[in-house]
Amino acid sequence: MLRKKNVVTERHGTIMTIGINRPEARNAVNQKTAAMLLQAFNSFEDDTSLTVAVLHGIGGNFCAGYDLKELAHNPTSIKSEQDVTKGPGPMGPSRIKFSKPVIAAVSGYAVAGGLELSLLADLRVVEQSAVFGVFCRRFGVPLIDGGTVRLPRLIGLSRALDLILTGRPVSAQEAYEFGLANRIVPNGQALQCAMELAKQISIFPQKCMHGDRNSAYYSVFDATSFTEAMQFEFDTGVQVILKESVPGAKKFSLGEGRGGKL
């Protein structure tokens, strides 16, 4: 009998789907699952033929965080490199700076470490009944997979502190109003809609898109000044002008891509 895989990866053309497969635990991540998630995302990063990854949960929930039952019975189960530059976080891929887009297809609960995993993504496609929240607040479990770093950047410090301090549930609609959710879709359609979005992104000239994406992240997390961010933007963008901008301009002059059509 084949053993169930805690993480299921599939390839759809240039798109990789990464599914957390522990529905009996609302897709809570244990040590084994964290290692498998890390391996899956490293494979995505290393494969130059892949354009977008879609992270989702199998069985109705995105992820309920780290498996507290495992932590309760085995306190040493969280084995993470304390130097964040030298090893993975407890949830697996949380310390990776992706070079390509990642989309989270969120259904059910995306709470505690599951919220942190959703924050890895560039975009979050969220089902109507989905719930976000720092539910680990009530159990004294800290956010150590980037939650306190990424969340304030995404939705602002005031709103982030509301979630971090209270641990309250946040609906899909409120998450959309915050800017945490990028799309709200009917229940059961998050993965399908995320795949459609991934296909749209994959059509565009990739070097230019990666450069603009990288510049946006640099300006938010790494630049120490407006001038430094502007310089990085120019230095990054100028590299693609001959490779993609000039060919794109020639297509435009021939009538391609006008009226929003690709």
From TrEMBL:
GO terms for molecular function: catalytic activity. PROSITE patterns: ENOYL_COA_HYDRATASE (PS00166). Gene3D superfamilies: 1.10.287.2460, 2-enoyl-CoA Hydratase, Chain A, domain 1 (3.90.226.10). Pfam families: ECH_1. SUPFAM superfamilies: ClpP/crotonase. InterPro entries: ClpP/crotonase-like_dom_sf (IPR029045), Enoyl-CoA_hyd/isom_CS (IPR018376), Enoyl-CoA_hydra/iso (IPR001753). Belongs to the enoyl-CoA hydratase/isomerase family. This is Carnitinyl-CoA dehydratase-like. It comes from Pelodiscus sinensis (Chinese softshell turtle).
